[in-house]
Amino acid sequence: MENQPNIVVIIVLGSLIMFLLTLVIVVFVITYSKRMKEKENIYQISIKNSELELLREVINAQDSEREKIAASLHDEIGPLLTVLKLNLTKHTRSLDKQNLLVEDLMEERSFIDKIISNVRNISHELTPHFVKNNGLTYALTNLTSSISKPNIQIFSEIDDRVLINTTLTVNSYRIILELLNNIMKPDDATEMIISLTEIDHFFRINIEHDGIGISQDDYITMLAEQPKRGLGLSSIQSRLILHNGTIVYSQENNLSQINMLFPLKNEQKN
Amino acid sequence: MTIFIYTLFYLSVFTPGVPIVSALINRHSLQKHILITILFLPLFSLVSDLLSWWLVNRVGFQYGILHIYTFLTGTTLFYYFYHLFKKRKNWVLVCQAVFTAFCILSVFFWGGIHAANTVPNTALNIFLIFFSLSYFVKAINELKYNKITQDIEFWLNFGLLLFYGTTLFISLFETYLRHGNPDTNIYTWPILYIANILFNLILTLGIWKTSRIL
Predict the structure, then answer these.
(1) How close, in Å, is residue B11 to chain A by CA atoms?
(2) Backbone angles phi, psi at A255, to 5 degrees
(3) CB within 10 Å: which end of chain A, N or C, has fewer?
(4) How far apart are CA A155 and CA A137, in angstroms?
(5) Adjacent-strand bridge partners of B180
(6) Of the candidates B65, B26, B23, which has an alpha carbon nearest to the alpha carbon of residue B47?
(7) Taking CB atoms and an 8 Å cut-off, how many pairs form between chains A and B?
């Protein structure tokens, strides 16, 4: 019992220390969780900003598409319709003078054919439902049939309407359109082969042509300079990202190749 | 001084009623295992204190009540932590088994039913300090505890850590305290009373904060 005062001191001091330790731990946990909450808020804001940026990109892309439509209508259909109108005015006068020739009317007919063809091309570029309804191979065949140079051949070893879903169909169609546009710009390609295959659960698109191509290094450089390069590249890139796809540019023996691979695991139709 | 200690004693005996009433009012906003824990812990405390108080005036202090109280409290808390640590259920069961073994050994071999249950009581303190600290580590590691002060688990563990941490030395030296000089005990028992009052207040605060009525 002589030790009791010492034990009392131990109890009082020990209890006090434990009490203070508890308070320190709890205050630390509350402070830490508040700090984590602030960090998460910052993270949420950054996500929101990214979403806004993405939305801005989408809107820009839409605007650009609209500009493209307007330019196509203005540059391709507008002049043809003007010429047709002028010719019809001329023929009306000829009809008045009774010296209208069948050849003159045949000329207008070819104009109308051109307009129909152009309208169809523009329409195919714009309407994804055409691609959705008929599949990638059919849409590409239809598209390339109106292109005289380069001579484009399409090889498809797959039934793309079964193998790939509609989103991938539309996006791969858009990517190919963009790539065709890029390839045909220098106007030096004479032959082009587009092949669609399936390799080890990957949907593969291969474009081979004899025009001016680019290497993978060029492509990486262009990606780094993306804002200056317009929306074409960003459109291709975002569609690739959307489907976890990859793209590889290569050049060999005066032939340029573009190889794209899309994993089929999550893309196949149900 | 005596009045102060008596006031603390009475407050300590009756404050468990506050979380009981709060838990009953907010029973719909509490999960089943938490409601059971919050109702039973103060209830055991209230009943054992009242029973001890009543018996002290008639036949003297009965250690049997202390044994039963420790066992029931421990079992309730192990039940709570069994539900809290879903990935470490087996560890909780092992601790519960060890604690139960200590309780049985304490009743039949270590001092018997008429002696203080120092070993199971101290073991319970250590287990609960460890479990509460584990909860806080878990809370820090998991982002879901963002609004930690709006989580009843936080308040319950805060209360448990505070009570069982502060009373660890009292549990450890309980035998000395019960058989020692009553004059020196005026410095030690108030620690238990204050810890108990704070535990009940923290629990009540947690219930009301969780139910967002406060």
Answers:
(1) 19
(2) -115, 140
(3) C
(4) 8
(5) none
(6) B65
(7) 78
CA distance B165 to chain A (A): 5
CB contact under 8 A, B166 and A36: no
Q: Which two tokens stand for residue A199?
A: 């390799």
Kind and range of the H or E element at A152? strand A151-156
- The nearest CA of chain B is from the CA of A202 a distance in Å of 37
Q: How confident is the model at residue B214 (pLDDT cuts 50, 70, 90)?
A: very low
Indicate the pTM of the whole model.
0.59
Q: Which of A246, A226, A235 is nearest to A171 (CA)?
A: A235
pLDDT tens digit string along B1-14? 578 888 888 888 88
Q: Is the dihedral of CA B113, B118, B119, B123 positive or negative?
A: positive
Structural tokens at position A47: 């996500």
How many Å apart are CA A89 and CA A83, to the nearest integer? Answer: 10
Can you tell me whether residue A150 is helix, strand or coil?
Answer: coil
Nearest-by-Cβ selection for B162 from A22, A30, A32: A22
| Cβ neighbours of A21 in B, within 8 Å | 165
Residue B177 CA to residue A34 CA, distance in Å, equals 42
Q: What is the tens place of the pLDDT at every residue in B116-163?
A: 888 899 999 999 999 999 999 888 887 655 678 888 889 999 999 999
